[in-house]
# Entry
Amino acid sequence: MEKIKTDIKRLSTEYFNEIREIRRHLHQNPELSTEESKTAAFICEKLEEYGIAYKKNVGGKGVVGIIKGKMPHKKNIALRADMDALPIIEQNSVDYKSKTHGKMHACGHDVHMACLLGAGRILDRLRDQFTGSVKLIFQPSEETYPGGAIKMISEGVLKNPATLSVIGQHVTNEIDTGKIGVRSGIYMASTDEVFLTIRGKGGHAATPDQVIDPILIASHIIVAIQQIVSRNANPVVPTVVSFGKISGEGRTNVIPDEVRVDGTIRTFDESWRVKIHEKIAKLSSSIAEGMGGSCKTRISHGYPALVNNDQLTAKIRSWAIDYLGENNVLDLEKRMTAEDFAYFAQEVPSSFYRLGTRNEKKGMISNLHTSTFDIDETSIITGMGFMAYAAIRFLTD
# Structure
């Protein structure tokens, strides 16, 4: 295994400039969820160039590469990268700045794709040194529910050959370049969207006795729902209910007939997830009716909580220590953000880890989903190298 490790590190350095240019091309040409046609075509072009067999249009715009080692049907592992960008106007002053106004790879999916292509390139070079096969899953639409993972699964991405496990990698500016972070068990939250439509009776703001004020009703509902979190949720199970949008067609002196309130629900417990949906609907309706109005609740059921398989994650931690050194492998905290990688984890033992991209000296400190997010590109060496190493270790151990 020492020779394979040495070969992977050598090839990661050898391919760095090439893979960095791929990342920059992808960063300059972002596409939103369900729109990733040019991105998929570019990935197919690179896989053809590397001589890696692939299938396109899997679950929409998804692409699946396959690298066959010796006895390819003996064992199979999948590596996953997401493809879509975000509707954000990039504020970075770099040569590879987004060319499409209002669209930006602000979540690092350009890095994920580049690292997976780099890992594929390495694995293809070393195919005579491992037994089994590796799938390269390029998944569309992670940022927008229902997401691309569940669609790719429904179209058989984990079959033919049967995939035993899936490993996912995601950048983070919270960890320095050259390090990765891992966590066993529950890692990321479920995510649901809640939409409240509060009906009242509009009228002149100066005659409140003649109206049923839906804005006032909405205010009471928003405050009361926070009490569900503080008084009904198990204190050891993190729960977040946040409202990000309130809209009503009123004015300073006009109370509207209707107000709409949109928000998100995040938690880690699936049983409690069901109960909080019920409590929000019941509480919202009763408050509105008690104040003379009505409230219709619609909850869009989003991604489930992401649970990393304990056994696989323990192996990834061990492999990472071997590959990067113990000081470069960190423990992650739970996150209230969500990921449709969770669907893969529901199907087969899977694990999702973080790749450090932070470099304060280079100014690479901005958070994900911000207009100034960027990475220390030397992290690509770690990213593609460790993905390749983890795949081979999985097939070898």
Remarks:
- The first helix runs from residue 2 to 28.
